[in-house]
Specification:
alpha/beta; Bifunctional diguanylate cyclase/phosphodiesterase; binds ligand C2E; 11 helices; binds magnesium ion; 9-stranded mixed beta sheet; 280 residues; single chain
């Protein structure tokens, strides 16, 4: 860091930060073009039941195939889309795409179709006054039964918006399930679980990573399955990468898991022989 000294106060100037800021601005503008030119597509990752290994649901994850930058990670562009507000339009597209796809699987696969599709929603979407109306319209247009949809939100998103809880109640009143994503990494308050309109707890990968290892961190995954059971929530362990983790999670009482060990996000997880994510 080069330090600029201004009147006794030190400000740190980080050139990398400037570069990042201008990349943000550029990406922000390019998101608009991306939407207009259909550069986004969805991949789906299996959520499987233990011990059968059946795919009971899929999580819809967005991808951006950028004409120059190649495949851009949602971790890089979702925060930008949230910041400039485009997430509202992108999010509505994602929801429609995922529900259309799920309805198609139900039509073509019958009993072999997954039971649910899980769609991520960000804080900005939850603070939209008519998010529940958007969800209802998409369900009506695609003919997807509400019980086949899950909306995933993070604890932070719930805390960030004054209206999020009302929005979630309205969505849930449609018959759609609500999942708390990345549970344990945000403003975790177990108190939230008592009152929040939530059906599913997604236990974050950072706890799953330590399952089966000695030490303090392994205790959390153990505690969260008990909390889930007592509150009658369905627990899903995220980011399961090994058979040993899956075995231990099952032993702890987890019955639903998601992770590379069971399948990577793929354009068509119900058909793809190879579970590999599409390369750029
Ligand atoms: P998330 O909702 O917690 O999604 C899970 C992320 O973990 C996905 O990354 C998935 O590919 C990755 N993952 C799954 N299993 C494993 C594993 O075994 N090991 C490892 N290392 N990673 C695993 P992805 O698709 O890059 O998405 C990252 C985040 O971006 C998501 O976290 C979510 O917060 C956001 N995101 C992705 N798609 C959407 C979307 O359609 N809408 C919104 N609002 N956010 C999205
Ligand atoms: Mg998620
Ligand atoms: Mg997650
Ligand atoms: Mg996560």
């Amino acid at each position: 860091y080069a330090a600029k000294v201004t009147g006794g106060r030190q400000q740190h100037y980080d050139p990398a930060l400037d570069a990042r800021a201008s990349q943000h601005a550029e990406l922000g503008a390019e998101l608009r073009t991306g939407l207009d030119e259909s550069q986004f597509f969805m991949v789906y990752q299996p959520i499987v039941a233990l011990p059968s290994g059946d795919t009971v649901a899929v999580e819809a994850l967005v991808r951006w195939r950028h004409p120059q930058r190649g495949l851009v990670s949602p971790a890089d562009f979702i925060p930008i889309a949230e910041h400039n507000g485009l997430i509202v339009e992108l999010g509505a597209w994602i929801l429609r795409e995922a529900c259309t796809r799920m309805a198609h699987w139900r039509d073509t696969l019958g009993a072999r179709a997954p039971q649910r599709v899980s769609v991520n929603a960000s804080a900005r979407q939850l603070s939209e006054p008519d998010f529940a109306g958007t969800v209802a319209a998409v369900l009506a247009d695609t003919g997807l039964p509400p019980r086949c949809l899950v909306v995933e939100v993070t604890e932070t998103a719930v805390f960030d918006s004054d209206t999020a809880l009302d929005t979630l109640r309205a969505v849930r009143a449609l018959g759609v399930r609500i999942a708390l994503d990345d549970f344990g990494t945000g403003h975790s308050s177990l108190g939230l679980l008592q009152t929040a309109p939530v059906d599913i707890l997604k236990v974050d990968k950072s706890f799953v990573d330590h399952v089966g290892t000695p030490g303090r961190q392994a205790v959390i995954a153990r505690a969260l399955i008990d909390v889930s059971n007592h509150l009658e929530l369905t627990a899903i362990a995220e980011g399961v990468e090994t058979a040993a983790q899956a075995d231990e999670l099952y032993r702890l009482g987890y019955r639903y898991v998601q992770g590379y060990h069971f399948g990577r996000p793929a354009p068509d997880p119900m058909f793809s022989g190879s579970q590999h994510e599409l390369a750029a």
